[in-house]
Amino acid sequence: MKILVCAKQSPDSTVRVKVAGDGKSVDAAQITWAISPYDEYAVEMALERKDADASTTVAVVSLGAARAKDSLRQALAMGCDEAILVSGPGADALEGLAVARALAKVALEAKPDVVLCGRQASDDDQGLVGAALAEALGWPHVATITKFAPADAGAGSVNGIDVWKEVEGGHEVWRATGPVVLTVQKSEKEPRYPSLPGIMKAKKKEIPEKDVASLGIDASLPRPEMVKMEPPPSRGGGKIMKDGDAKQTAQELARLLREEAKVL
Amino acid sequence: MTPPTQGYGAIVLLVLALGAFGAAAWRVVQLYRLLRLGAADDRADHLGQRLRDELLIYLGQRKLFKRPYRIRGLGHALIFWGFLVITWGSADLLLRGILGRHMPFTDTVWYQWVLDLFAAAVLVSVVVAWIRRALVHPPHMHVAAQGYVILALIGSLMLTLLTFEAAAVASMRGGPSSVDLMASRPPVAALLSPLIPASAAIGVFAVAWWAHVATVLGFAVWLPNTKHLHIITTIFNVGLRKETPRGALALIPDIESKETFGAATIRDFSWKDLLDGYTCTECGRCSDSCPALATGKPLDPQKIVLDVRSQLLTEGPKLLVDPTAATTPPPRWVGSKPDELWSCTTCAACVEACPVTIEHIDKIVDMRRWLTMNEGDVPPEAQRSLTAIERAGNPWGQPPDTRADWAKGLGVPTFAEKPDAEYLYFVGCAASFDRRNQKVAGALVRILRAAGVSFAILGTEETCNGDPARRIGNEYLWQMQAQQNIQTFKKYGVRKVIASCPHCFNTIANEYGQLGGEYEVVHAVQLVKRLVEEGKLKLKDGEAPRELVAYHDPCYLGRHNGIYDEPREVLAGIGGVEVVEVRPHHRERGFCCGAGGGRMWMEEPVGQRVNHKRVDQIISVRDLMATDGATVSKVASGCPFCLIMLDEGVGAKGVQEELKPVDVLELVASRVEVSA
Fold first, then answer.
1. Do domains B255-374 and B393-533 have the same CATH topology?
2. The complex's ipTM?
3. Is B547-669 a domain of CATH 3.40.50?
4. What is the rounded CA–CA span in Å between residue B7 and residue A249?
């Protein structure tokens, strides 16, 4: 089986994101970048297939700034066979639909049996690219999956893929024939820890780069635009009531909740 | 005494002796060749200290006498010292029997008396040891048939020795005989001699003598095939033990050029690890003291050592015959025991307890290195902490730009602001990010200010010292963290470092030197003690009521770095405070809080939680004191991880109001006198 994983690089969850001076983007200084968590699950899920069947090949593609190469190396260190970077001027500013169209070109060239995406990216939480990619390719799409496996374990090409999908109170099993796009909720195991030999090997691996301009994406298509970005309001300090007996404190608390906090 | 080897006797004895020692030597050579399969490990340093160890630990049997084994230790020491004296005598018997010559001193009255008394003492000790094994089953001692046979052999050696000596004394009753007079009349032999009729004395002497010599030779053949080999290997194991600080793990030099990491096969362990295996006597003292084993975890430190030995003895010979066997899949037994390996808190209770200086932690970490770096096979929570260190520079994954937030409003300068500061206060991740421990950092700042110490912090330029990564087995990450800190230290010309966390302290003081970072490092408690002694820090006298404070020894202050007295002296120097020992688990027998070795960030689903057991121990001491009307109201420690674990423990036991965990520094800071 041939799997293509689409992985986006986004700020690591340990980073405290700050709004940049323009008021509509993230301050890129001092950000540690990492594979977006759902995409990391997608990488892990692909590698779990590879563990089960050594003939599986896993390629990973990332579209974005040149620094996304570091995240691709992380995926290679985890065990992916090859990585493709789609970059170039403006690559990190593309919005979801354009990204999906660009990735579709890469997928058509790579001819995978399965394309895996995370269900949504941790930075914009749009959840668009996976579904839009399926649409652009004209392939079926199953969302929020937790597992997939070849439906027919017989030799040769894959005849069908069974897909486990989480729903309220249980799960469904779907069968897809032909190539399919799956968006991942969670892998069975936590994303694996790259071994040191894996890291060293990944360091030496060649990562081919495609210029996003060469993919012929029409930039004149209608697109939404970010207007404003604001952090949540900072939390005010709490109030500790120490004085007075229990009855007084309770009365004071009720008064504060009604008059100041206005929740009663 | 004339040995009964007239005529062909001497020749028979010569043949027997050559055969026995030949067989023993063959086995020893084989064991040595197996040992050479191990990886290199240079132990040619600290020669003076090694000599001292031989005298104190081997000859002096010092570690045998540790609490709570004093009586049992005496039994062992008597057998050991007796063995030294008697082996001299055995050599003498063989020399006399074969060549008619004798060993020095053996004709002297004092030697014969010493020999006689030790033979009796050994005999008594052997009987006691036998009874103990048979009736009072020692919890973790590996008691097998072999142990009884060895005891029986030692016993029969003593019995035959005393018998032929008694016969020699008895033979004197009938006047001069062909047996030389035992004119020295050693006391035990003299006491036994009336049991032997004078007429039968010469016959009894000959039979007992030959029986004794035959036992000696038989023992020599069998010994290298048993755990009793330790009487020889201990000489080397003690003399070649790690003389670098106990808390320092070995560096993997030039790590980027290596292809495999840590230990998975017997070739990956060092020859010293293999020698440890030969030396283990299966006494179980390491297991007795292991907090993981005591709380129902699958780890048994003794088993780790014995597993290495059994791997060597089963797989090693194949490798000796066919060195290319290395290309076939190696015995990957390490991968089959992750739960054992991840249970270790690296508290060093086992290392402390081992009478023959076996190094358990280094093996466990070496196997963790293989799991972590080679296989990427790490418990998920440990993996999260490693990834957090990689990405955020702290194992909790807190935003790195908030590292110095605890110091906001305290006016603590960074080195960038105060480049001429004398000391760097290396805050550490716990005191930087954990709310409870941030108060300890604040307390230290108050103390340093009051004593007029010139210091600064690195602020957001500080990053995790790497200790958790190294102990989880990610040496590579440790090296990256250490190098980053060393670079920052260099940038500011840091020479003196204060650490309030024993893990930071241990790594910077004992391990950064491996990468060229040499500093004068003190734990805050050591510095406080010095400041008080120098009169720079004045503590208010206790108009406060008498307060009983239990002291919990952090492993990385105590066992790993020998800092037992300073925290106690600092506590005792606070007016009104009286230190309570958590007996018997105090000082070098301190019981781990459960957070070392990276366990701080791992779940503990199996067995009792280590910190709960520790809190139980503290509560039982408190309850015992309470029967005398004394109230232990606090438990003090000197480690942020201990503080977190104790806090959780007293909470779970519902005693958080009556038994408050604190850091020693907080108690000091509450009594600091701030001069104008």
1. no
2. 0.86
3. yes
4. 108
